[in-house]
Each structure stands twice: as structure tokens, then as C-alpha cells.
Design a protein that fits this description.
Length: 238
Amino acid sequence: MSPLRILHLDGDLVAIDKPPGLLVHPSRLDAHEAQTALGLLRDQLGERLWPLHRLDKATSGVLLFARHADAARSLGIAFETGQVRKGYLALVRGWTAAAGTIDYPLARDPELPSAGQPRVAASTSYERLALFEWPMRVDPRHETSRYALVAVQPLTGRRHQIRRHFKHLAHPLIGDTTHGKGAHNRAVAAWLGVERLWLHAHWIELPAGAGNRRIGAPPGAEWGALIGALPAGHKEHA
């Protein structure tokens, strides 16, 4: 595998642009996977690293690691207390509202049935960037299918939060094999020529106490057809 793309490197942390399909660290759910971002970057830099947060295996974009235990502790607190802001790009089924906030408690463990689980507060804001109507007859009632590109900010940090919240809105993410719609996933993959989860961790902003850094990862080339459709006033989001 090619070396991981380093977006930022200082004495406390390193940020990479994680490609889709790469685990962050070893997981019992993907015990067969030999490669992880943690292992590859550790070998690339020749040092021990501490993961500061997670991205789903299928998600691309900004991923941070601490370079020493003190940084892991202080930055870990910043993540846990909601001081770190994060922005994502997502392609979803249907035409969303222009903007909104999803306040919907989620079951604690997304890998288990929701029934009987305690629910935890979760909040996600979003802004619609572009609308698409493509000549694909996924639903036999309609000659075309509609999708939206959205900029998303999770205001809390629950597992699979963005994916579960947009499912709740009936606008599931395209390429989401767990919470999405298989017919739409297949149709969009054929239309765009790319099969992936359309979720990209676009930027992370650290609080002032951590240097007030904003680290971004431009979306990959496969997002070009979507980004190119943005109005001029929205291009700064991508």
C-alpha cells in the first residue's frame, strides 16, 4: 500500500487523509483485516501513536493521532468534552431541507438491536449544498432519482451518528450498506462509476488550548462530479 498522506505533523499530533476501506485500528468486527491506519502510520513514522478518534472503515478523510501520551490525554479530553469541531461531506438519498438540526437520541451500541438499549442524546446539523436528479429508475413509480450533497457537523460524538441520523430523516447515506438502501447504492455506484460510502471527514478544528488548528482533507477525485455542481457561494464548503 502507498504511504498514507500526511496532512499535518507537529510535536503533539499527526493528521492523515484516511482512504475509504481502511480500519483505524484493529477491531474484533474486522478481525480478518491485517492493515489498519494505526499500524501503517506507526511503521511509516517509526514511532508509537495514539488514536484520538474514530472514522468508520468506509469513511474517508481527516484522522488524528497523538504522538505522545500527554498529547493523547489532553486532546482526548478535548474530544470527549465536545471542544473539537468536525465537518463532513455526505451524499444522501432524496432532497433534504435547505438546512436543519437533527436532535434524536440514539441507542448506545449500533451493532446491537436498538430495542431495550439505553438511548443517549445526539445532535447533528447540516446544510444542503447541491441537489441532483439523475435519470435512474430505482423506484418504478418515478423515471428519475433524487439525491442531495450536504455539509454535516456532528454536535455530539456517537458511533455511526451521521449515518443513523440521516436514516432517521429518511435520507440515508448513499453507499451505506447497514443503514442505507441497496437499490440506490447500486444505482449511484453505476452512475458515478464508484462504489463507496459517500461520507468524507472534510475538516477538524481543534480548540484554542490545543493550538486552534483547523486541518482539512480535500475530497477525493471521485467527488468531482458532485463538487463541480456546487453554486459559487458553496464551493468554500468543499
